[in-house]
Amino acid sequence: QAEVSNSVLSQRVRVEKNATVRESVVFSGVTVCEGAKVRKAIIDKNVTIPPNTRIGYSAEEDEARGFRVVDGITVVPKNYVFPS
Q: What is the pTM of this model?
């Protein structure tokens, strides 16, 4: 079962089984795939977060993906595509 807490989700957001979204803002057209974890993040439009991906748990990992991390908040840009 998915868990969403202290977050704002726009329309057309899908949070799949065993995924969590905490203290985040998620824009339209985003899918948080099974087992993914999002914390203290802003996810812009039309992003699919792959299964078991963690965002907002390690600034170093997030910055290595090219995300901006400001004051402990990770920003994932619009239309970002995760490498396969």
A: 0.96
